[in-house]
């Protein structure tokens, strides 16, 4: 595992309408191992609601990164993390279809466009 030199990002509420498609923006390009679709990733992340900029989750707040098999995550992460390299920071803007589905879907974030800033610390 690589220790990130990055600190918890601050995410401002964007202006304008939420995107209809997944947006992927590299904020820092890593130079380590590349995440593949079948990888298990070790990440630090912050998630906020697009409309309000309100943070709903952050591994940083728990003081520890999280290990996930990509195939078990929301489709925005499954599509947005492969190709990312360890040491990188990427922002994903996930419309409801790539997050927790349409409003009324049973999750408290259903129907919401979500922004994640993800630091890739390791892949396996």
UniProtKB/TrEMBL annotation:
InterPro entries: PPIase_dom_sf (IPR046357), PPIase_FKBP_dom (IPR001179). Its EC number is 5.2.1.8. It catalyses: [protein]-peptidylproline (omega=180) = [protein]-peptidylproline (omega=0). Keywords: Isomerase, Rotamase. This is Peptidyl-prolyl cis-trans isomerase. It is an enzyme of class 5 (isomerase). It comes from Alpinimonas psychrophila. Belongs to the FKBP-type PPIase family. Transmembrane segments: none annotated. Pfam families: FKBP_C. Gene3D superfamilies: 3.10.50.40. Residues 38-124 form the PPIase FKBP-type domain. GO terms for molecular function: peptidyl-prolyl cis-trans isomerase activity.
